[in-house]
Each structure stands twice: as structure tokens, then as C-alpha cells.
Amino acid sequence: xxxIWSSAGMQFMDLITYPEIEIKxxxxxFISGKSGCGKSTYLKILNRTIIPSAGRLCYQGRDVQELxxxxxxxxxxxxxxxxxxxxxxxxxxxxxxxxxxxxEMPGRDEIQNFLHICCxxxxxxxxxxxxxxxxxQRVFLAIFLSCVPPVLLLDEPTAALDEETSVRLLxxxxxxxxxxxxTSVCVCHNDELIEKFSDYTIxxxxxxx
Length: 209
Description:
Helix content is 37%, strand content 22%. By secondary structure, it is of the alpha/beta class. Helix 4 (108-117) crosses helix 5 (133-146).
């Protein structure tokens, strides 16, 4: 199995120092570590939302600094902890994000299937303001998943979920990623979930940041 990312000597603002890391293509990998060790920051570096102050990150053998930012971010999609849904129906929100990409939105049945994968079996006419925080998080994730990106970065996707829903969600997403050959990297604080679903675990230290 080839590596999709490799990094060495990476630091962020002299606060976080990362070990040498390699992430395998088509893997469902997890990042673990105590609060403040730089897990979410590392996902943002992978997505190029932020730039490390030192070190080198390569994507498919090329320095990410050499790659066009916008096309790179379309391929390497980060689903943040903060949910950005608008007042309006679930369908309205799917349409907004797909219009922003300048692409034709999937059909209703396909959208309903992505919601099902994300344990969000709501009618497409449901107004998002009526959803709980965890429900909004799952709808938001379904929108990203519907893009079927080559790489999916997940920042604490189970943080607002109970154990049963967390297991079902990660099981569904891992199965979909495997089917579609999507490389996924997930930040998670639950060691039991990591043990159950991780192909490869990146364990970060206790650096402050």
C-alpha cells in the first residue's frame, strides 16, 4: 500500500512539534492524543487551512506548497467540528453547497442514501433549525460525503453522539470509504472507537498548543 501523505520536521507556531508521519492511501486512519497535542491542527495542515511554520508535507509524493490550493482542497475535504448549516431545508443546504462547487447536485434518492449512511434519516424537507446539534452534525457530514472526495478529513465526528450512534456512523462511513477508495483521517478522543475502526493510528504526544 502506497502513502498518500508524508511529513517530516513539521511545527506549528513553535507550539506544536509533530513526529514524522506517513498516511497510507485508501486507509481509514485515526489521530489520537490528549487535548492540546495538535490533533485538529494537524487536520488543518493536511487541508492547507493553515500552514506549518517549519517542516515539509508531501501529498502523493509532491510538496503541497507546489499544488494549487483550491483544487487541492476539493480533493482533500475537511469536515470541521463547527457545523455550517443555514436556515432552510436539508435539500436547500445540499443545493447551496453543490451550487458553490459549480456542479450538478445528486438526485433525491442519492442524497437520502448519504443521509442514511450518516445516520440522519430525515425527510429532505426538514428545516435544519429544528435539528439538534448532533443531527445537524450528521447532515453536515452527509453533504461532504456526497461529494465523494478522494480524501476525507473528519474532526471529532462522534463528539456529540451516543455510543450506539457513534459505532453505527463510523461503521457506515468506513464501509463507504472502502467501497469508493476514499482515504480518511479521523480525529477521535474515544479509544474504544479507535481500536474498533482504525486501520492505522497516529498517536501524538502532549505538546502544548
